[in-house]
Design brief:
Elements (H helix, E strand, L loop, with lengths): L6 E8 L4 H12 L4 E7 L4 E6 L6 H10 L3 E2 L11 H32 L14 H15 L1 H12 L5 H21 L13 H25 L1 H8 L4 E6 L2 E6 L8 E4 L8 E7 L1 E4 L1 H4 L5 E3 L4 E2 L4 E2 L4 E7 L5 H14 L5 H29 L4 H15 L2 H21 L2 E3 L2 H7 L4 E5 H5 E12 L11 H12 L5 H13 L6 E7 L3 E6 L2 E6 L1 H6 L8 H9 L3 E7 L2 E12 L3 H10 L3 E5 L4 H11 L3 E3 L7 H10 L4 E5 L5 H6 L2 E5 L4 H6 L2 E3 L5 H36 L3 H4 L5 H20 L17
Parallel strand pairs: 15-22, 15-24, 22-23, 24-25, 25-26
Antiparallel strand pairs: 1-3, 1-4, 2-3, 5-6, 5-7, 7-13, 8-11, 8-13, 9-10, 9-12, 14-26, 16-21, 17-18, 18-19, 19-20, 20-21
Helix pairs in contact: 1-11, 3-4, 3-7, 4-6, 4-7, 5-6, 6-7, 6-12, 7-27, 10-13, 11-12, 11-13, 12-25, 12-27, 13-25, 13-27, 14-25, 16-17, 25-27
Length: 761
């Protein structure tokens, strides 16, 4: 470990094309003294490095990467995961590959026809001339394919090997053999002056085609990030020295006053100081209805002002805004590495040297034991082995799926902080919910108002009188139960009688004076202490308490008038979410510090069978550990500070976006919209993403395991089957494209709560 405070940077890496490249860049970075950790992602083409600035510098990191044959670009600043310069560089790379592809295709087509002239008698005589084929092939070999030869020279200089090594060695072998046959045809009488310019030209063109398609596809994987970044306007109208001036959003400072007009997006987070409006916050909360804003209301970057004009004071700017933090979370998840990728990384590290060894053995075996012309068979089969091997597919199998999956999750308000969390989430078999604020609304609401002599909630003629007198006694109360009673009275529009001489009886209730006598509102202890007979209400009170409700009695002038019951209501979607989890074979547990009757009542409403009640905050993590000791893979869903230890202890911690910052920091997944369906969506998405990754890895490994031996000629003794280097090049070019395309199927994924699985893929 480094001695000082570690600094983390994220910087683009240019020149990587396969999993072997990733390994080389990582080894170069970790070899620098002072670097604690380095992680390189092929799909995002970026490196995340943690280092001690007292021991090393960015220049030292850049020099180490350059020595390995790659370029470490300027570290990214701010929240944007893909800035304009970097996006322009990617687009320029796509254009370069496209231009090379066009030239390669135009020149390779006649070369291919010339190489097949013995099968196509209509081919013009000029294309049968080896000197013409040499002239057409040379630009393809050394201009279109220069990127591969340059990569090979870098590899040779530092005793490394990559995909560029395979392509360069293979095509150069075919090209220079053909040049020799063209220059000295009498030295190869057994070959009949047959050349392999078509192998060289077409293979390079096909590999460039693969790179162009791959670059285009990889650009699509970061669309979700770009859409998030685009939500923030580029300029803000700031009030300075009494005048309104437009400045770049990046120049807005904390404390600046910003004017916003109808239809404009909020540039930074802040607090309204003047004016009023309604704001569309659906990008943050998922709520369709706009939110009223008045002085002291908070506004967030990226949300849309609907109606009025107002001024707000900037509170969080740059990378500190809510939108920037969301973008950062998604970018970090897309750039992180899943445990499932380690196998691919280990194989890729030795893959190219092994392929070079197989190609050498293939050449020697065909030279020694093959039919005449043995040298011809040896060359073509060795080239086929070199060309067909594809470490690209292995390198892209995991990160492309992670990128698309994390981006798609962000569009659903599900922020997955790392690839590891995404992988662990798919294996979860138990979901533990905190009760208050997670399964429930988190605020008590009056559920029953029962006058003496009534048998049903709010059915008696005196229910409004009971509610009015109770609300009058609770006016000004800061107790949640008192606020609920007052809110219920306002909903029903009842008039409150005058009440005075308010006094709180600690642990029991309220004592006040009304026109008709003394008002008592509180628990059974208060009534018994003041000699009020509540026997007629006791059976109903006990029944309500058994349902997990809090009961208070109301008395006037020493006589019981009725009772009120309140409870924290279950969220409307809670029961549906629990049922959806059960359909997916996931056990559901509720964890709460509430009493057993209250917990069981909520659990019954939600359809939860297993409940742990009266759990102290410090014991929640122990309960998670106990479930894990049973062999369960546990996801914990919570929202409060007291949930943070349990969220950190769980296999995967899921925080409600409406919860505390502490809970969100401790969790692996954040449900930005506070919607419980996000729990099921996150699990569904992770299962689908991991399935895509497994398909990609199966294809990448299977492709190489099966086709490399075929290219070496193992089928020839049995069925006379050989693989043309041209077909090998085509297969290699499309193998990595197929992996990226398979990952892009996740972009069509849609969460459907009523189904075992989901659509779009």
């Amino acid at each position: 470990m480094a001695e000082g405070q570690a600094t983390d940077i994220v910087a683009p890496v240019r020149g990587m094309h396969c999993a072997a490249c990733v390994g080389k860049v990582e080894r170069a970075l970790t070899s620098v003294p002072g670097v604690d950790q380095a992680s390189v992602n092929l799909a995002t083409e970026q490196a995340t490095v943690s280092f001690d600035p007292a021991l090393t510098s960015v220049d030292a990191l850049r020099a180490a990467v350059a020595a390995a044959g790659y370029e470490l670009a300027e570290p990214r600043t701010g929240a944007a995961p893909v800035d304009d310069a970097e996006q322009s560089a990617r687009e320029a790379e796509q254009r370069r590959q496209r231009n090379r592809l066009v030239v390669g295709a135009l020149l390779s087509t006649p070369v291919l026809l010339g190489g097949m002239s013995h099968l196509l008698p209509w081919v013009p005589a000029v294309l049968r001339d080896p000197w013409v084929l040499l002239a057409l092939t040379t630009p393809v070999q050394f201009w279109v394919g220069w990127q591969f030869h340059r990569g090979f020279l870098h590899d040779l200089r530092y005793l490394n090997a990559s995909m560029s090594t395979l392509v360069s060695v293979g095509t150069n072998a075919a090209y220079f053999f053909s040049v020799a046959v063209t220059l000295w045809p009498h030295a190869f009488p057994q070959h009949g002056a047959m050349t392999y310019f078509d192998v060289s030209a077409v293979v390079i063109t096909l590999v460039v085609l693969g790179r162009w398609l791959e670059a285009r596809a990889r650009g699509r994987t970061s669309e979700a990030i770009r859409r998030l970044v685009s939500l923030a306007p580029r300029t803000a109208r700031v009030v300075r020295d009494g005048a309104e001036v437009d400045v770049p959003t990046a120049d807005v400072r904390v404390g600046d006053f910003v004017r916003l007009r109808p239809g404009e997006r909020v540039p930074v987070d802040g607090v309204v100081t003047e004016g009023a409006s309604t704001i569309d916050e659906s990008m943050l909360t998922g709520e369709i209805l706009p939110v009223e804003k008045a002085p002291e209301s908070k506004v967030f970057a990226g949300t849309v002002n609907r109606t009025g004009s107002f001024v707000f004071r900037a509170a969080r700017v740059g990378s500190e805004t809510a939108l920037a933090r969301i973008v950062k979370l998604v970018a970090e998840a897309q750039g992180s590495r899943a445990p499932i990728q380690r196998l691919a990384d280990r194989v890729a590290a030795v893959f190219v040297p092994i392929v070079l060894g197989i190609a050498a053995l293939t050449f020697l075996a065909w030279w020694a034991f093959g039919p005449e012309p043995a040298a011809l068979y040896a060359l073509t089969n060795a080239v086929a082995v070199l060309v067909i091997a594809c470490p690209c597919a292995m390198g892209l199998a995991t990160p492309t799926a992670i990128m698309v999956g994390a981006g798609r999750g962000a569009e659903y308000g599900v922020l997955i902080k790392s690839a590891a969390a995404l992988e662990l989430l798919q294996g979860v078999d138990t979901v533990v919910f905190d009760k208050t604020g997670t399964l429930t609304v988190g605020r008590p609401a009056v559920t029953d108002v029962i006058p003496v002599g009534s048998t049903s909630a709010e059915a008696g003629p005196g229910s409004d009188d009971v509610l009015a007198l109770a609300a009058a006694a609770e006016q000004g109360s800061e107790h949640p139960l008192g606020e609920a009673i007052v809110a219920r009275a306002k909903e029903r529009g009842v008039a409150l009688p005058p009440v005075s001489e308010f006094a709180t009886v600690p642990g029991q209730g309220i004592d006040a004076m009304a026109a008709d006598g003394r008002v008592l509102l509180g628990n059974r202890t208060l009534m018994d202490a003041r000699g009020v007979d509540v026997g007629a209400l006791a059976p109903r009170a006990q029944a309500l308490a058994a349902e997990g409700k809090t009961v208070v009695y109301l008395a006037l002038g020493g006589r019981a008038l009725g009772l009120l019951a309140a409870a924290d209501r279950l969220k409307p979607d809670a029961a549906d979410v629990v049922a959806a989890l059960k359909r997916r074979g996931i056990a559901v547990v509720m964890l709460t510090g509430d009493t057993q009757p209250t917990a069981e009542a909520i659990a019954r409403q939600a359809g939860i069978d297993r409940v742990r009640a009266e759990v102290l905050p410090e014991d929640k993590a122990s309960e998670i550990a106990r479930l894990q000791a049973e062999g369960r893979r546990v996801a914990m869903v919570g929202d409060g500070i007291n949930d943070a230890p349990a969220l950190a202890r769980a296999t995967v911690g899921i925080a409600m976006g409406s919860g505390t910052d502490v809970a969100i920091e401790a969790a692996d997944v954040t449900l930005l919209r506070g919607d419980l369906h996000g729990v099921v969506a996150a699990i569904d998405l992770s299962r689908r993403t991991i399935r895509i990754i497994k398909e990609n890895l199966a294809w990448a490994f299977g492709y190489n395991v099966v086709l490399i031996p075929v290219a070496a000629g193992v089928l020839y003794p049995f069925w006379g089957v050989l693989l043309s280097p041209i077909l090998a090049g085509a297969a290699m070019a499309f193998s990595s494209v197929s992996v990226v395309t398979n990952s892009l199927r996740l972009k069509r994924w849609q969460y459907v709560s009523t189904k075992e699985t989901f659509d779009g893929g």
